[in-house]
Amino acid sequence: MKTDCHNCPLRKLDLFDPMSKDEVHFMSKFKTGEFVAQPGTEILAEGASSSQLYTALDGMGLRFKTLENGSRQVVGFILPGDFIGLQSGVMGEMQHSVEATTRMTMCVFNRSELWDLFKYQPRRAFDLTHVAATEEYLLGEALAAVGQMDGYAKISWVLNRFFRRLTALGLNENDQVPLPYRQQDIADAMGLSLVHTNKTLAKLREDGVATWANDTLTVHRPKMLAENAFERGTRLRTRPLI
Amino acid sequence: MKTDCHNCPLRKLDLFDPMSKDEVHFMSKFKTGEFVAQPGTEILAEGASSSQLYTALDGMGLRFKTLENGSRQVVGFILPGDFIGLQSGVMGEMQHSVEATTRMTMCVFNRSELWDLFKYQPRRAFDLTHVAATEEYLLGEALAAVGQMDGYAKISWVLNRFFRRLTALGLNENDQVPLPYRQQDIADAMGLSLVHTNKTLAKLREDGVATWANDTLTVHRPKMLAENAFERGTRLRTRPLI
DNA sequence: TTCCTGCTATGTCACAGTTAAATGCGGACC
DNA sequence: GGTCCGCATTTAACTGTGACATAGCAGGAA
């Protein structure tokens, strides 16, 4: 049951830049298939080279690095529309692992055809560079949060980030968004211990700012959450969809 | 005193991927000038759009973000060969500020000609995406260090990272490399306080692993420093020069 | 129905790291 | 030569966070 690029549900969202007919046509040829990954599936492995690149169509996942001391740093959360495997595509080797958290459906592209994209579709190549720069920006934001905030601000920051991203994906119903991750995932993203993350989430709940339970994040006070996280403005920037 | 691309001193280094005659020729046309920045100069500002992009030819600088609470997160250290302003070039707006730490000489490119590079030089466009992916990788590494290491490992990690990068740039003389940054810069990169950074540097000196004084980093025990930082392998990957 | 596993929740204590303040030193400027 | 500034260093007091232990709950498997 392949999702036709011409009928891609993500393209309808304001979050993603519009695509020309020519670009859509090229992408429908560039796309070689769909891949459905079950929860826990390792989609890409750190240090490995992959012949496939992906766009997440549905479902959620994680990007993480494993340190030599065994600890895990989550370097990103994959949501619909995210591109997966760029590092393998241009550097030849993934610098982080990717794992499905829920059942995920992904559009599949062959790495061997990436060069054709650069040769024949400079606008798409430019968009790919834009996606890479966006990833860099998101990592910079995360580094700033992890490096300069205390636990309460960190948890506020990550929940606020999820809330905004999931809202922009049209997944917000009455200030509730799906959040199927574990507390350990958030802890490993923010550089906190599991216990401290749990206690901080309890504090946010007790303060009436946000509640995370049963794979659902409910934000009672969006402005307060954003302020706790030292977030300027509310607007997420649009970005290209690959 | 313009540096001719055909005689670029950086191109001689093994750290950078070779360039074809056609690529060098294109770059010498793409380059519009040289810019010399004095220490303290703000080269690019967070939130601003710039009409220029740069490659650092000589000298060192910083990339940083400022949080609403006034704290500063250093998100990168600029060394010769680093590309500056990619986010402005593809996203339209810088997500971090760039400041010169020493006197810096930079090759200047016009952002308006970036599109030509994508249209007429797909190999260079591919290299630019590679550079973006490399920045993403470096930020992921930094996030892992800041998020998962204690103070001693963090300082070891950043000094080891400098030692390797500066050695690859041919700046290592008897296990000594120039390091003209302040302790506050390192503290803001690793998410530590200035006092704790100072104490940790003292501990490394006392352990006979590394000494940083008079803008010079001396690594007495490179393997020990790398082990403290949980760094696998010794080899830095080559990358394209823009 | 029972047992096991994974995840969430809570309490207590120790300490790595922060904050505030003071001192020393070297270089630039008058 | 004296003064001022920026940076490095040190000390003391404090606290946010980690480590450890324990308990509860829900869902899946036997």
Automatic annotation (TrEMBL), chains A, B:
<dbReference type="InterPro" id="IPR036388">
    <property type="entry name" value="WH-like_DNA-bd_sf"/>
</dbReference>
<dbReference type="InterPro" id="IPR000595">
    <property type="entry name" value="cNMP-bd_dom"/>
</dbReference>
<keyword id="KW-0238">DNA-binding</keyword>
<dbReference type="InterPro" id="IPR036390">
    <property type="entry name" value="WH_DNA-bd_sf"/>
</dbReference>
<dbReference type="Pfam" id="PF00027">
    <property type="entry name" value="cNMP_binding"/>
</dbReference>
<dbReference type="InterPro" id="IPR012318">
    <property type="entry name" value="HTH_CRP"/>
</dbReference>
<dbReference type="GO" id="GO:0006355">
    <property type="term" value="P:regulation of DNA-templated transcription"/>
</dbReference>
<dbReference type="InterPro" id="IPR018490">
    <property type="entry name" value="cNMP-bd_dom_sf"/>
</dbReference>
<keyword id="KW-0805">Transcription regulation</keyword>
<protein>
    <submittedName>
        <fullName>Crp/Fnr family transcriptional regulator</fullName>
    </submittedName>
</protein>
<keyword id="KW-0804">Transcription</keyword>
<feature type="domain" description="HTH crp-type">
    <location>
        <begin position="149"/>
        <end position="223"/>
    </location>
</feature>
<dbReference type="InterPro" id="IPR014710">
    <property type="entry name" value="RmlC-like_jellyroll"/>
</dbReference>
<dbReference type="GO" id="GO:0003677">
    <property type="term" value="F:DNA binding"/>
</dbReference>
<feature type="domain" description="Cyclic nucleotide-binding">
    <location>
        <begin position="15"/>
        <end position="85"/>
    </location>
</feature>
<dbReference type="Pfam" id="PF13545">
    <property type="entry name" value="HTH_Crp_2"/>
</dbReference>
